[in-house]
Specification:
Elements (H helix, E strand, L loop, with lengths): L6 E5 L3 H12 L3 E6 L2 H7 L5 E4 L5 H6 L7 E4 L5 H13 L4 E5 L3 H9 L4 E3 L6 H9 L3 E8 L2 E7 L9 H4 L1 H5 L1 E8 L2 E3 L13 E7 H9 L1
Parallel strand pairs: 1-2, 1-4, 2-3, 4-5, 5-6
Antiparallel strand pairs: 7-8, 8-11, 9-10, 9-11
Helix pairs in contact: 1-6
């Protein structure tokens, strides 16, 4: 999946859904947020492009909203497994190309993949912001939010990084970020030295403020 502007639908605005919707909107993507209750819709309406009170298991109302024009749908209905499965089914039938669904456990996940969900997430393991970042960035392999505005990410070494040492790259000076580990295949170097050279295929584990990390991603 590329870094281009995408259109996302987020269905179910619990803590996880709200976090995903807000993160995607923050990154400049077009987000349609849907919930069957009025309150979460009110709360998120000024953060996202559109917020609509609707029943996502009702094919007609999803059709009316034009969900087939969206690139990605995130189904984060948590408390009602039946609605969660039904909404997934309807979205795939209406032709949404990529549907990500929050599952409660492995059994639920198995059912979801059988009915065509493209990606299953288990929010207890995958935080909402991390999932949102994974949806829109292809070279960031993993993302951990440490504190507001501060994260650890994994970045695959780009051509600008390959062949240079950490000292030459001076990422701390350029972006205010620190390389805390370098993965080379199965080996992880958790105490990288200034003279360690980045090779093709390396994965850097980098910590820093989100704005610095974003600049590194685009570097």
């Amino acid at each position: 999946m590329s870094d281009d502007m995408k259109q996302f639908i987020v269905i179910g605005l619990g803590r996880f859904g709200t976090s995903v919707a807000a993160t995607l909107a923050e990154q400049g993507h077009d987000v349609l947020a849907i919930d069957r209750d009025e309150d979460p819709i009110q709360e998120i309406s000024n953060l996202v492009t559109h917020a609509v009170q609707a029943d996502a298991t009702d094919e007609d109302s999803l059709k009316t909203l034009g969900v087939n024009n969206f690139d990605v749908a995130v189904v984060s209905i948590g408390d009602d497994v039946h609605s969660n499965i039904l909404a997934t089914l309807v979205l795939k039938e209406l032709g949404v190309p990529y549907v990500v669904v929050k599952a409660q456990d492995n059994l639920h996940g198995k059912v979801l993949s059988k009915i065509g969900a493209d990606k299953i997430v288990y929010p207890e393991r995958d935080m909402g912001t991390r999932v949102a970042h994974n949806l829109v960035t292809s070279n960031v392999l993993d993302y951990i939010e440490l504190a507001p505005d501060y994260s650890i990410i994994e970045v695959r070494a780009t051509t600008k990084l390959v062949g240079k040492t950490l000292r030459e790259l001076a990422l701390r000076v350029k972006f205010g970020v620190n390389v805390i580990a370098i993965k080379k295949g199965d080996d992880i170097n958790v105490t990288p030295e200034a003279d360690d050279r980045i090779e093709a295929g390396d994965i850097l584990v980098v910590m820093g403020k989100d704005e610095g990390l974003d600049k590194l991603r685009e570097y």
